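stuck on whats below:

***
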Amino acid sequence: MRGRRLATLAVAATLALGGIVGLGATPAAADPPGGVLRGVYFDYSFCNNYGFEGAAAGSWDWYYCEQRYSYWFLWTFTY
């Protein structure tokens, strides 16, 4: 009986601690309003070149490359 009570207490403490830690978490970054993700690149120059070529060809009006960790995300906008 004592082992069962300790197991229940351990599970309750783990769940409570998980809830406290979860309250401090921030939501994932959302897409920019009106933006379309066109590609993910390992290098800024590839991201920028592809964005520039698309803007020059009229595929989109504006673009930017956003870095997250070791990746570059190409966001495009058409107005």
About this structure: Residues 2-77 form one domain.
